[in-house]
Structures are given as structure tokens and as C-alpha cells.
Amino acid sequence: MRIAQIAPLYEAVPPRLYGGTERIVAYLSNALVELGHDVTLFASADAQTRARLVPVRDQAIRLDPAPLKSDVAAHLVMLQEVKRRAREFDVLHFHVDLLHFPFFEDIAGRTLTTLHGRLELKDLAEAYRAWPHYPLVSISEQQRRPLRFANWAATVPHGLPGTLYVPPARPRGDYLAFLGRMSPEKRPDRAIEIARRAGWPLRIAAKVDSADEAYFRERIVPLLDDPGIEFVGEIGDAQKADFLGNAAALLFPIDWPEPFGLVMIEAMACGTPVIAWGCGSVAEVIDDGVSGFIVHDMDTAVAAVGRLPQLDRTAVRAVFERRFSAHVMARQYEEIYRRLAGEPAGAVELACTA
To answer: Which Pfam families does the UniProt record give (predicted)?
Structure first.
């Protein structure tokens, strides 16, 4: 099939450092090429892809040193180019929320839109009611709850290439890890408290957005004085295998309705179990007692650290391979594309939820 993938322009595809949506677009595009499809990727020029790249901006927005830039203008220019070339594709797969809705109404049935963020925000319901003909994909069943009325085609969990992270032969397992954004909803403060109460070192690899600088400075920096707490900053893929693979567990103590939580399957790919608060998509990603532990308060989180020896790291990796590889994700999308294009459906399951 001739498939267009339309990525956000905020990060490179895949991102050099932190970033979720663009990472998934990269892995999906490559996996679809491996399956024999003709894939065209609309993204910034610094993308690394096996697909045919259409560069619509010289570089991704976040790491562009230009002091003044317009993300709206950049995305509108990209959508204009996609619109100009729309006849070249059987399916156009958008990953830019609903920005494209006003421009592709005449071919909405040939589009697919994966929603990567939270959906309980004010104004969203009215917008999705205004454009009801666009087929949508959620990344967890929990994510779609605020918009149950919307035109859902399937739920497709994220996936990673099976070779991206390889579990170490002899993981040290001598520290706990926190990986993500340094923000109130990700609760790095909880991670620090869990580690302290359990008597374990904690290594924190996190991006600090400008919007979260005050939170980091006022709430987290004072907690970093403990010699057992190490802040290593923002890391990219090259460092994640070592950072996650040698941890005893990833702490994921979120305090918000997480749409998916990519870092959970990154840890699982390394064979590293996850101790996660039971919010958002967590129960759909973590097999409690197999790939990690789902907790609901500080006491059970601390107790879960003591239960880590009960888990088999080989089994954690096996769950990843069965449920969250890029190949599994691409096969699920492939079936939806065929349905949209009117081709005969295969035997692949459309959704994979826990």
C-alpha cells in the first residue's frame, strides 16, 4: 500500500532526546517499510527513516536555536504539502492531533488519525463532534473515555523495534530508575520518596521543560541533596539501554490519566520490571506480578520494591515481544489501512489491550 505518515514537527523523527509521538512515527514507518509497503514520511529534514522522506522544515522545532519561530506556521506549510500530494497515497496517517481536520474533509475516509495525548481537555469534545467523519485510533482504552462518542477505528498500543534495547546479560540491578519529564503529573517526588523509604539509590533521567522549571527548582532540587539520589539529566536512546537495563526497576509513580506511557515498554524491552501507580493506561500495559507491580499508595509501592526478586526479567522481556514490538504495532495498523482502502481484511487483531 501507499501510505503517508504525517509527523509533528516539534522533535526529530525519532527524537534526539526526549519525545514520544515522533518516536512512534519513526518506528511505525520503518516497520511498515519492512512489511513491504511504500511509505512516505512528512517530517523535519533531520528525520532518520527507511521511508521516503519529504522534509517540510529544516530541523525539528524544539532544538532549533532560532529565538523566534512559529509552530503553527510550520505545521500549516506541512499540511499544505500533504494536501497537494494526497492523491499519491491510499491512506494518510496523521499524528498531529486534529490540526488537519478542516483541510481534508473531502477525503476523511482515506485518513487515519492517531491521538497521542490526553483527551479530557475543554473544547476537545466540541471539536470532535464538529468533525465526526475522521477515523481515529486511541493508544489505550482509557485514553478514549472522555470522547466515547468519537469515530474510533481501533486501539493500537505503541511498539518499539525488538533490537532497539537488548537486556544486558548480567544486569547490575543495584538502583531504581525514573525516566521521563520533570513535571508534577509524573511525580518524581514520589519516586524519590519510594527510593528513600525502601533504602535504594535512585537515578533520575528527566527532561525539564521551561514550563516545569519552577516546579523542578522549588520542589525537586531540594530533594536531590540526598547522596542516594542522582539526577543525570535528559538522555536519548543511546543511553537508555544501559540506564534502564541495569536498574532493578523503573518507577512510574504518575498522578494523571496517562494515555500510554512509552517509558514502561522501554523498560520492559530491557527486561526491567515497572512499579507503576494505577492511573491511566497502566493496567493495560503492565501485567501485574509478571512485568511489574501496579500500586495505589506509597506503602504498597515501597513494599513492591521488596518483591522485585519474585519477577523473572526474561518473562518481562517476553511480554514486551508478544505485545509491544514495532512489528506487532505495524501489523495492527496495516489491518486498519486495508479496511480504510477497501481491501480484504486479514486475520490480524485490530486491538491489543490488557
So the answer is: Glyco_transf_4, Glycos_transf_1
Give the CA dihedral 306, 307, 310, 316, nearest 10 degrees: -110
Record the cell numbers describing residue 44, joined without a space.
523535519
Helix, strand, coil percentages for the chain (3-state, nearest 5): 40, 20, 45
CA distances from 202 to 46, 198, 235, 327 (A): 34, 10, 16, 33
Q: Do domains 2-161+325-341 and 176-323 have the same CATH topology?
A: yes
Q: Spelled out in words, what is the top-level CATH class assigned to the domain 176-323?
A: alpha beta
Q: Which cell is 52 given?
A: 521516503
Q: Could you give the CA distance from residue 170 to residue 276 in angstroms, rounded to a whole number? A: 24
This prediction has a pTM of 0.92
SS3 150: coil
At 38, phi and psi to the nearest 5? -90, 100
Domain-wise residue ranges, the chain? 2-161+325-341, 176-323
What is the DSSP code (8-state) at residue 88?
A: G
CA-only gyration radius of the chain, Å: 20
Q: Provide long-range contacts, Cβ within 8 A and 24+ apart, for 217-222.
A: 219/184, 219/189, 220/182, 220/188, 220/189, 220/192
Closest among 292, 256, 73, 286 to 180, alpha carbons compared? 256
209 — pLDDT class (breaks 50, 70, 90): confident
Class of 2-161+325-341 in CATH = alpha beta
Task: Write the pLDDT tens digit of every residue in 218-272.
Answer: 999 999 999 999 999 999 888 999 999 999 999 999 999 999 999 999 999 999 9
Among the listed residues 54, 44, 50, the one whose alpha carbon sits nearest the alpha carbon of residue 4: 54
Helices (H), 204-281: 213-215, 237-245, 262-269
Q: Where are the beta strands (DSSP E) in the chain?
A: 2-6, 38-44, 52-57, 91-94, 111-114, 136-138, 152-155, 176-181, 202-207, 229-231, 249-252, 274-277, 292-295
